[in-house]
């Protein structure tokens, strides 16, 4: 699997929708939707790559529903290091109090998406 990380700026550009008061063509709408889907898939791929590096589990065995503790075998220290690397890579802050909400790769993905639109 080719390793491909994106910057937060590139991700936000792909996620950004046109303002509501601006008319865009159907082709532009389709392109915006495809870019959003692509950005979300790229974020998921980069989380999986990072999870693989921290867990030692092959990327092809990690899925959105993989749990960090049971499926990936991350202990608390490994998980904290993994989250710290995610925070640095994506330019977000995940409070320790929210770690319990992040049970699966999908949970982390869904948690990061809205943070990309907020200042630290």
Alpha carbon gyration radius: 16 Å
Category from helices, strands and their pairing = mainly alpha
Mean pLDDT across all residues, rounded? Answer: 80
The name CATH uses for the topology is Non-ribosomal Peptide Synthetase Peptidyl Carrier Protein, Chain A
Q: N-to-C SSE series?
A: HHHH
Domain Carrier: 41-116
GO biological process, one term: lipid A biosynthetic process
GO molecular function: acyl binding; acyl carrier activity
InterPro entries: ACP, ACP-like_sf, PP-bd_ACP
Give me a quick take on this structure:
Keywords: Phosphopantetheine, Phosphoprotein, Signal. Residues 1-22 form the signal peptide. This protein has 120 residues and is mainly alpha-helical.
Describe the model.
This is Acyl carrier protein. InterPro entries: ACP, ACP-like_sf, PP-bd_ACP. One of its GO terms (molecular function) is acyl binding. This protein is mainly α and 120 residues long. α1 packs antiparallel against α2 and α2 packs antiparallel against α3. The radius of gyration is 16 Å and the shape is globular. The chain starts with 7 loop residues before the first helix and ends in a 5-residue tail after the last helix.
Protein topology:
Layout: H1 8-15, H2 26-55, H3 76-90, H4 105-115
Helix pairs in contact: 1-2, 2-3, 2-4
Descriptive terms for the model:
120 residues, mainly alpha, Non-ribosomal Peptide Synthetase Peptidyl Carrier Protein, Chain A, PP-bd_ACP
């Amino acid at each position: 699997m080719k390793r491909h990380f994106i910057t937060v700026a590139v991700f936000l550009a792909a996620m950004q929708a046109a303002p509501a008061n601006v008319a865009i063509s159907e082709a532009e709408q389709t392109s915006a939707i495809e870019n959003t889907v692509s950005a979300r898939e790229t974020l998921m791929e980069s989380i999986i790559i990072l999870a693989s590096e921290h867990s030692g589990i092959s990327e092809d065995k990690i899925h959105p529903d993989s749990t960090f503790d049971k499926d990936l075998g991350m202990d608390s220290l490994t998980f904290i290091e993994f989250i710290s690397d995610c925070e640095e890579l994506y330019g977000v802050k995940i409070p320790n109090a929210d770690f319990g909400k992040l049970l699966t790769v999908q949970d982390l993905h869904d948690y990061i998406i809205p943070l990309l639109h907020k200042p630290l």
